[in-house]
Design brief:
217 residues; alpha/beta; five-stranded parallel β-sheet; 5 strands; globular
Length: 217
């Protein structure tokens, strides 16, 4: 949703439909302000927001440092998807067949499902849409930023990244997110067909994105 957002979307009929959403899962382009949007949405609605909290829960439950979990996520490859597929098709149920990255993914998915049992919530990254695919009332959101200058400004200010490193850092994190998403869903992370709502933070701003998402909860 960008400049084409119209008042028709706020009709009473549509509002009646969108009020049924229980979970919002957010994937975001690096530098889009997606994390800010999720956290502010949580603050204004009083709902829990789970992002880094998912890693912290897995870390505590499995006695694995968060930094190591982040490395496993970063190193995941498309072959992991096949490992899960083969494991599921074999019917053996032997988790030892999984790679280390596979164990981490399964642990993350379990934590997301556990968190969802608590009621309405916002989930940031970690393929939460996959963990909740059998749940009703899930809204899959992707946040992008169409303005490269705005994106650059956010990266330097929000993450204290030197201007000379912005492009490299942006490429690194987008590739990491794309690889992880594909390995676990067999879908492209930047394929807009995978999402119910696409928000452009360059057009709507942080507050605009938050207000739109508030309307569905």
């Amino acid at each position: 949703i960008g400049s084409d957002w119209s008042s028709d979307v706020c009709s009473s009929d549509l509002k009646e439909i969108i009020m049924n959403f229980k979970y919002i899962t957010i994937e975001r382009e690096y530098g889009s302000g997606g994390t800010k949007i999720a956290r502010k949405l949580a603050e204004e609605t009083g709902l829990p927001c789970y992002g880094k909290e998912i890693l912290e829960a897995v870390s505590k439950a499995n006695d694995i440092p968060v930094k190591d979990i982040e490395k496993y996520e970063e190193n995941v490859t498309g072959s992991f998807l096949y490992t899960l597929y083969a494991l599921g098709k074999s019917g053996i149920g032997n988790s030892d067949m999984l790679s280390l990255e596979g164990h981490i993914f399964i642990a993350e998915q379990a934590e997301i499902q556990k968190m969802a049992y608590g009621g309405k919530a916002i989930f940031l990254g970690h393929c939460a849409c996959e963990a909740l695919k059998d749940q009703n009332g899930v809204l899959k959101v992707y946040i992008r930023c169409s303005d490269e200058n705005e994106k650059k400004k956010r990266i330097t200010e929000d993450y204290n990244i030197p201007e000379r490193d912005v492009q490299r850092t942006q490429k690194h994190f987008n590739k990491k997110r794309a690889n992880y998403y594909y390995a676990n869903t067999a879908k492209r992370w930047d394929d807009m067909n995978n999402y119910d709502v696409i928000l452009d933070s360059a057009v709507l701003g942080i507050d605009g994105c938050v207000n739109i998402l508030k309307s569905v909860l």
